[in-house]
Structure formats: structure tokens, C-alpha cells
Amino acid sequence: MTRTTHTDRYFSPDPAVRDVARRLYASVADLPLVCPHGHVDPRVFADPDYAFGTPADLFIIPDHYVVRLLYSQGVPMEALLPSSSEEEEQPEARDRRHRAIWQTFADHFYLFRGTPTGMWIRDELRDIFGIEEKLSGTNAQRIYDRIAERLAQPDFRPRALYARFNIEVLCTTDAATDSLTHHQQIKDSGWCGRILPTFRPDGVINIDTPNWRANIARLAEVSGISITHYQAFVAALEQRRAYFKAMGAVATDHAALTPFTIALSDREADAIFQRALRGETMPDDAARFTGHMLMQMARMSIEDGLVMQLHVGAWRNHNRAVFERFGSDKGADIPIATEYTRNLLPLLNAFGNDRRFRLVLFTLDETTYARELAPLAGHYPAVWIGPPWWFHDSFNGMRRFFDQVMETAGIYNTAGFNDDTRAFCSIPARHDLWRRAACDWLAGLVTRHIVDEDDAFAMARALAYDLAKLTYSL
Amino acid sequence: MTRTTHTDRYFSPDPAVRDVARRLYASVADLPLVCPHGHVDPRVFADPDYAFGTPADLFIIPDHYVVRLLYSQGVPMEALLPSSSEEEEQPEARDRRHRAIWQTFADHFYLFRGTPTGMWIRDELRDIFGIEEKLSGTNAQRIYDRIAERLAQPDFRPRALYARFNIEVLCTTDAATDSLTHHQQIKDSGWCGRILPTFRPDGVINIDTPNWRANIARLAEVSGISITHYQAFVAALEQRRAYFKAMGAVATDHAALTPFTIALSDREADAIFQRALRGETMPDDAARFTGHMLMQMARMSIEDGLVMQLHVGAWRNHNRAVFERFGSDKGADIPIATEYTRNLLPLLNAFGNDRRFRLVLFTLDETTYARELAPLAGHYPAVWIGPPWWFHDSFNGMRRFFDQVMETAGIYNTAGFNDDTRAFCSIPARHDLWRRAACDWLAGLVTRHIVDEDDAFAMARALAYDLAKLTYSL
Amino acid sequence: MTRTTHTDRYFSPDPAVRDVARRLYASVADLPLVCPHGHVDPRVFADPDYAFGTPADLFIIPDHYVVRLLYSQGVPMEALLPSSSEEEEQPEARDRRHRAIWQTFADHFYLFRGTPTGMWIRDELRDIFGIEEKLSGTNAQRIYDRIAERLAQPDFRPRALYARFNIEVLCTTDAATDSLTHHQQIKDSGWCGRILPTFRPDGVINIDTPNWRANIARLAEVSGISITHYQAFVAALEQRRAYFKAMGAVATDHAALTPFTIALSDREADAIFQRALRGETMPDDAARFTGHMLMQMARMSIEDGLVMQLHVGAWRNHNRAVFERFGSDKGADIPIATEYTRNLLPLLNAFGNDRRFRLVLFTLDETTYARELAPLAGHYPAVWIGPPWWFHDSFNGMRRFFDQVMETAGIYNTAGFNDDTRAFCSIPARHDLWRRAACDWLAGLVTRHIVDEDDAFAMARALAYDLAKLTYSL
Hints:
Three copies of one chain form a homotrimer.
Chain A: H1 15-28, E1 33-35, H2 43-46, H3 55-59, H4 64-72, H5 91-107, H6 116-127, H7 140-151, H8 158-164, E2 167-171, E3 174-175, H9 181-189, E4 195-196, E5 199-200, H10 202-205, H11 212-223, H12 230-246, E6 251-256, H13 266-277, H14 285-304, E7 307-312, E8 314-315, H15 320-326, E9 334-335, H16 345-351, E10 359-362, H17 368-377, E11 383-385, H18 395-409, H19 427-447, H20 453-471
């Protein structure tokens, strides 16, 4: 893979800093990509001949970063998403529609000036598709043609790109109820790529999830355990964790509105569980049950060694009309202020001193970096800080992360980088941004004589590669 | 108007960044000033011969930024404000008093080192009054003389300065109950300056306002509607909005402690309204009624097209003793932490997807830039982010705004700049700071190869001029 | 004392900025150190022959910054702290144990890369002990020997170092119940060093302190006042303040979870006090009583002129297991979000306009710098902002402080620097970091033409020296 966009991109214009940044970056630019957390669909690797579809399928339709910014400036959702009857459409009609989506995107590409999405797309077009022109309304169809042409070639199949991207391992995110069929197919195929599942039980743990009872039924089915009470539920989760682990999983992932934790007695937990089964939950039940189950997950992590990831702070589907018409993940999730010090007290007092336990905390509230997360990770043996997440996965977001986390926690209490993306083709651009931002930050430390060059080279490698492997035992 | 203070002020000392910043700035420095939100008194334009009074009248007495910093370091309020019997004073006594105020200010001018107020005053003295000396206790009276001499000249009348400042349009802020007499006089005078009113109904919407019942009586009077119940109140507001719009208004403005919104039934709203009329409100009545009326204002904005501005988060008149002796706006308003994601949920779910609606959000809590405001504006078609406000209307405040807002929202979901000042003569210095800060920020993006120069020039113009006009349809 | 680590450390790599920073720094580098707040044990100065013990005693065992980071990466507490039976150990066994602690520290010294603790230790080793090598597992024992050898010399006695460090005055922190015996010994010894006590009444004011009743008994004993009711308690505190003042104290210091203040009637206060004496407190009693006593402390400060320092926002002993086994101050205190605007309203309305009163506010929640603290200090005559504290006492912490506080408050509403350390030998490195960070910040203002050089030199001196003396009347 060539990196032809400006070789100094993201680096400080100061010649002294840039010189150090270049040398640090040169030492890590070609390290393999370790991807311990993300949302790429394992299906794309299960079928050796899987193709990505049209340029709109690849760059726009599934990318809520793109969709939300266009929508915010008045582009209707209908102009960006495939028709609900797309499956039945004629190929020509489908192509026309996707070309129109692409044209709308290109006409509004100026909206992405200075945004990380704009950077990633520029880098992807250039480094993966060899397109150096700036996308515009004028060249939109020509560029569409060039991308479509490339996507039709065998070396643009996901497995080929996996090799070209120099990925060492890529973890997906899979519901606790998932049968992991695609992962099994990947294993069976003998392909040498390393695609690992991650255990995500939100759909069965958060009792206010839409379709929770259906999810429990499904959990019973895949685990073979009849889930009529809390203890059976816990047993089913343990069974699924064991299955995920046998399938290669190294971690679990948990989303919640807040990091509230609480230890309920089995009786209390079962009472809530029974109410939920009957569809008669009381106001605090969901928060208390999730808080309790997070502690159960921590307990199980100590037993089975799966790293526990906690992603909190997003108010999901804030825009009800968009949710009802177009569903989740359309860019309508909005962060809220988040509190870790008090909320994690029960969990950390129970498990935070156990060196077998690894809890990786992610936040959408950057005020917690210096105030709560770095002090927690800088004390508890079990706590790690995940990289800047979602809205903060950007050059400035990374700079704030480095500036606000590292002095208190040191880099070795952080989990390195993860790309956390469903856009497979953006993975190299995302890791490249992280590596460049890290080297630029380190070059600042070197030129201010805060660390020496030897340390900076070691830190650059740790941030780019080692820490992700170490934290997740990959 | 000459700009003789250091031509590179506010620009990065890095030669590469400074070079780009200079060129970007050159392309926007002379664009007209668009002023969609501020507090200049329309009276100053109604009378063609209006004079600003003394240097103390111009620079100190009405400027709570100045008064508060002097007060914080032990200068008594009495030494900074005119005597309450000033109207009856002899001109000589008045002059002596104002000279003493000016001397006190000059003696303490070192307190303003590194503050935006210090910069604005330095720039005003130099660019408007041609005074290049640094103000000090020693030269205070000489500088007073020079300013006073200039202020006596016809080209220092507000209308002359309006032209000299190259202002294209200036919006004032006017109570819903205001008869807009001065605006009418400006219109009638045939003067070509464009001074527009803005509809601000806080005094009738916030039922805990001192004198609320008197304000309602005044609203009844100016609208000609007898306001004995909630529906009549709404009708009166609609009538006033129509009048303001006919008088040229393009926007409304709303201040509240928090952005709490809630949809009450007409019956609930009327019950609170009746209690307020009787002076018998209950604890949450004021917050609920304001929250409800903000939604009514949004509804009316969709109907009449007035842009809705929301300024929240200041605990007004924190210092009771100062308020009781000297009144409001003496620098004793202190911000509080503010929450938008949950608070705006009702309003945005009702109106946030309507592309006819424009809601401009301002904050005194910078933690909400990246966490809440940028995600909201980066999704909802109706949401814009206003420029850094009040305490944050400074070089660092702008840098934080650019760094924390733009990656998620893009610049096109922001409302450009507004000066939000009652100090008419500070307007050019404030716009100049914004333009310089924006160009310096953009030069950083260019030299880090995040945007190219073509984009940067377009973005500089948008931030300096276009976005303000577009957002407010000016 | 030589400053041999890189002469430009912490300065911007930009040549223009660095040049100004160097010149500013040269003008303040050799000013005496003013230390108005810290935790050095007065015992070390009471005995002219006091020795610091081993390198582990000096650098590791008492330093919770060091202990917590090692613990966070899996080093057991037992490997870092002296055995509880150390007093009875043979010197050889003790030496072996301390050497092992030092080896563990050196083996993990890479964890401190880029942290302020890493910088301070590097600077101390070099500037105080003349050790230029980077500490590592390999050279650990050799460096241990060199430090131990130095520590045995007379010029490494605390009083000798006090002179060598060029300390002008150093305030300790002493419980309200402390007899100040060591301070008396220092006075009696005729030594010219200026070591002043600070009145810290948390142990008697916070009724939820462990051993509160024992503390009250001790307070009765040292004050000679029988404390059976609230009024006697207040009288005893007034008596102790007078004693501390007579012993040279210039300030009081108060720690609380939040800055909540409230004025209780004497009857309410006594009712809580009586319940506390009986061990029957109700849920809000502790918070209300502390909130009330803070107001009493402010009232007394106006009367006796002691500066009032308020340190809030740490959740103490977050890790229960560590607290129970190893006690306080092991790095397990975690900050929480903090609110000042509403919480200080009662106190500031009662005393904030009194120019005899000086309240210095410290925070662990940096979001309050620009939002609450700078506006409060920039208005109230009685409010000052203390320097970056604890987790934020670092190069980036200082940059954020300068960037977020100074535009609104100006530098003259800040209290200059205090080192707030129990690690006596780190004092020069901490002041040096502050002076360098301040000069680097000022150099940025100069090169952006925000302040001129004359002002910058005055500001550098104020930040390095004058403000601390002025605020505390030293």
C-alpha cells in the first residue's frame, strides 16, 4: 500500500518538531495493524469472493459520520440511504440511485473540510484507490467509475485488502446470542487472516433493550439453557463466554448509558429479572440490573481472562423521528456528561486490585480524562484507558487525549489504539492518523526535552503496536 | 480605518503558519462587518447628532468586563460608576469625576495584561483614536484629553463610525414590550445604515423576572391584547413577533438559566400563568413555564422564519450586595455547568428536523462544545452553534472553540461570528480578533496538510462573513 | 545549586518563542522560592542533624505519585513500602529491603516517561545529587550508593538544603490540634530559616473524620476549653487560630469533598454538634456542618487576617482494600466533578466583598477554571485562584491553567505558585517547572503580540515570586 498523500500530514510545521516526528513515524509506519476493537462485519471475510458493492455502499450508506453531517445541512435521509425495496430493484435502477447518492455526497463534500471523516475519505481515495483529485460535484461520476472499476477487481476483495493493509489481527463485535457462523466459516476456510469475535451481551443484559425478551429466548436457544430465572441467565452467559473464548475471543464489550455499578444480592437480581420477563419492570430496574451485571461480567473476566471493555455515555437515538423511520446508527447518538469515580466504586472495590482483571474504559466525555480516568488507571492495577472514541477519534481528539491522560496515567496504563470502525477500508487511514498524531505529540516532548529520543522511539512503538497487543493479550 | 497595531498580532510565531495566516487574513480583513447579535443601544443611531459623552462613558462605565476586574482587585464600585445624581451635577464636577474614574482605570490598567479587554482597548485606542502610547497612570489625563477632543468631532458620531467601521448590518436586542421607537426614527430618518431589532421576550416569558407583572401589563398595552390567560399571552407574543419582523427583525433571543425544555398542555401552561398573575407560583413553575415557552418560540420561529437564539448558563447577579446597590450587569454573573443533550430533547424531537427552523445555541460551558453541541449541530438540520460567548470571546476561547467544535460539526453548522457587545467602538476590534484567530487556526490546518489552501480561503471567508449572513438570512 | 539538565527544558522549540522564554526565565530563575502551601514535615527542620534516611525513604516510600503508578502496573504495595516491623529490623535487613524497593522502582522507571514525577526525579537526581545518568534496572544499585553517600554528608541535612535551595519561606500544614512543638523548636534554635505553620482544622470540622471524637478531646486539651457544645467548639478554634498566628501562621487550609457552604443558626449547628458528640449523626449532618464551619472560618479570617485556602474535589481512599491494609495517601484519591458557583454563593454573599478577606480556591476539576473560578476571582474582591493542584501540577496542567484562567481573571487574581509537596527535595524542581512554564506561556503572548516585553517581564516576576508573597502577605 502506498502512502501518497502529503508525507508530512498532521505533523507540526515547526521544523525541529517535524524532523523528530518524521523519524519517529518512520520507525512505526510499517508495523502491522492490531485491531482489538471494531465493528467490521465478519461476513465480509467468510466468503472469499465477497465484494463491497458500489462506491456508495462503501463510503456513504453505512457510515453514520457521513450521513449525519449531510443530514445536518438539509440533505434528506432519503437521498442518502438505499430504498427499502432495493433488493427488488433492477441493477440499472440501483446503479442510478447509488450514483445519485454519490453525487449528493460529492456536491456537499465541502462540508467535511477539516473533519476527520474528510481526511479519512481523502486518504482512502488516494492510498487505496489511487485517486488524487479532490472530490467535487464536477468529477463525482468519473471518480465513481474509477472506484467501481477497482472494486470489481480481485485485489479489492476484503481478504486481499486485509493482507494489503498489513492487518495482524482484527476483532469483530458480536452479540452474545450470535452463533458465530461467519467466524466458523473463516476458521474452516483455512485462510490465514486472524478475525476474532468479541462477546457483546448488551442485548440480553440491558433489560430495556427493544426485543429483550426475544433476545433472552435466543440466548436460551444458542446456549441450550432454559432461562427462567437469574441463575440460569448467568449460567447461559458463562456458557456463551466459554464458546466465544473457544472461538478465539480475547475480550468482551459493554455499552451502557452510564458506568453505574452496584452489587445486588441474587434475590434482588432475580426479582428484577422476573419482572423483566413479565414485562413489568419498575423505574430503576434497568439501570440497577445493568449495574449489577457489569459486576458479574468483571467477575467472569477474572475467571476466564477475557478483557472487559466499557463504552459509556451515548444517548442513543436522540432523534426519535429519524430512529422510527430509518433505524439506529444514523448519526443521532449524542453524548452526555459521564461520572466514573463514584459509579465505578463498587466494581473497583470488588475487582480493581486483581491483576488478572483488565478493564478498558472508553469515554465520550473528555472532561473525565484528567479528572477521573487517568487517576483511576494511574492507581488501580485492573484499569486501562481506551483510545479516543467516536467523536474524539480525530487529530485534535488525540492531542487532547495525549495532553490530558498521559501525565497522570503514563502511556503504559493506556490500551494503545483501536479503530472501532465498521468501515473496513478506513482502517489504514485511522491507524495512520493515530501513529502520526502520537509521533507528533512525542516529537513535542522530545523538542521540549521532556523525554529523550530513546524513550520517544520506545513510546512510539508502544503506542502504535505493543500496547494494543499487550492489553488484549493478542 | 487604519489597523496600525502590530500587523501580525495573534498570529503564530511559526514562520510557515504566520505566512499562511497573513495571506488568509488579507483576503478577509476588509470584508464588511455583519453583526447579527449585540446590545448596542439603537438610540445612538436614532439621533444623527448623538455623542458618546466622556472617555469614561465610552470605555469604563458601561463595560462590565472593565468594572468587574477593577472591582476584583479592590477598587470600590463608587470609584468606577457615575454618581446617582450625575444628571444634576455641574459639567465641571462631572468632568472631574469622569477624569477621576479614568485615572483609576489607568492606574490599574496593568490588571488587564493578557486579557481580551486589554487587547480591545489597546486596539480601539490605536485604531479609532490614533493613540499608540500604552495607557498608564502617568499619561492618563493626556490620553483622556485626546479622546475627549476626538469624541467632540462630527466624525466620531455613531453614524459616522458605523460607516467608518464598514458595518453592513447591526442587530440590536430589544424587549418584547419595546415600542421600537428608536428603530422607527432610524427608518424615518432616511439614513442608509441598517440597524435591525431582535425580539427578546425574557421579561415576559421568565415568570420569575423582577417586575414580571408590570412587564405583562406593558405587553398588553403595546399589543393591544388583554392578557388575562395563557392563550392571550401567546397571541400577544405572536403579535409582537409580527411587529418586530415588520420592523426588520430577523431573529429572536432567549436567555435562561438552563436549556430545559418541556411541552406542557395548554391547561397546564395556563394554570402556571394564572398562578404567576396572582403572584402565587410554586417551586418549579418558572423553570417549567420557560421550558414550555421555549418550545412555543420554536414553533413560532418555524411559522414566521425568525432565527431563534438561545443563550444559557449564566447565574445572574451572583453578588447580591452589588446587585442591590448597583444593579445588573456589573460583572457579577457567573456561569454554571450546562446540559443540552437531555434538556433539548423535547424541543428537538418536536422541531429539530424542520429545515425551516434555525436554532443557534450559545454556551458558557465549554465542556459542551465537543460533547454535546457539536454532535447536536452535526446531526439536527435545525441546530447551529453560535460563536464563543462572553467569557470565551477571546483568543484562547476561539482556539478552544475551533479545536473542539469543528471536527465534529464542520464549520458550516456554526453561525460565524457575532460581537455581542454593548460597546459600539469595540466592534471592529472584536471582529478583527475573530478573523485573525480564524485565519491563524486555518493556517495551522494548512501547514499540517489537513486542508489545502483553496479550502482554507473559502473557510476564512465563510467564518469572517458568509456564515453570519447565511445563518440569519441577512 | 546548579541547573544542569537541559537549559531549554519545557520551552517551545520555536526559535522566536524560545528566545523570549529564555530571557524571561533568566530574569526569574534565581529569585528565592516562596512556599506558602505544602506538606513538608516541620520535624525535619527542628533537629539540625536530621537525616533523610535511604534513597528509598527520600524518593519512593512517602511519594504517593510514585507508589500509585508502580502499583497500577502490577507492583505489589508490599514491594514498595517498608515493613510494618521496620523499626525492629537490623540495619542490614533494612538496607537490603530499601535497596530492593529502589531496584523495583528503577526496573519500572520507564513507566514515568513523560510524567511530571519522572521529570522531577530526573531533575532532582541531576541538580541535587549530580547524577546525570538515566535511572535503569542496570545502574540502580550504583545510583543508590551515590545518593546514599551524599545523604550522609552534612550539606544534605534539611537546613543546609533549605539554604541551598534558596527558600525564603516555607509553610507547613498542621492539624488544628497540633501543639506546634517542632515549630517551637525551630524558633528556639535560632536558625534563620523561616518555617511557618498553617492551621488545618479538617479533623475537627469534618465530623465524619475517623476519630473525630478523639480529635475533639485533643482540641479541648490543647485549647484548655471544655468542648461540650458548639459555642465552646468555635471558641476553641478561635483560640487555636490565635495560637497559630502567634506562631507565625499566615493562612488556614481546608479540605472538603465539595465547596458546599451554608449558614446555619447557632441552634442548628449545635444540634448537629451534639449528635456528632453522641455518635448519632444523620445523613446530611457532616456536609451541612462542614459547609457551615467553612463560613465560620471565613468570618474568623476577616477578623484575624489569616488567608483561607480551600482544597476540594478529591474522593479520598477510593480503594478500600488499599486503605485498610496500607492507610491513606497511597495514590488512591480520585477527583470528582466540582461545582463552585452555587456552592460558594452563601459564603461569598456573606464575605466575598470584604477586602480584608482572602479566599484561595484550588480545584481538581479543570472544567471550572474558565467556567467558574476565573469569573468568580475576576469579580469578587475576596477570591484568588490557587495554582494547578496535584494531578494538574504538571507542564500541561499549567498550560491549561494559563490558557483557561488568565484571560478572564488576569494574573493578579491568582495566587502565584505553591509546590504543595511533602517531598522536600522536589521543591526546586517544582518551582523551576512553574517558572519555565510561565515564561514559555508569556513568550507565546509576546510573540503573538498580545503583551509587550515590558509587561511580560513584570508578569514573569509576579508569577514566579511576587504574587505568592502578596497573596499570603509574606
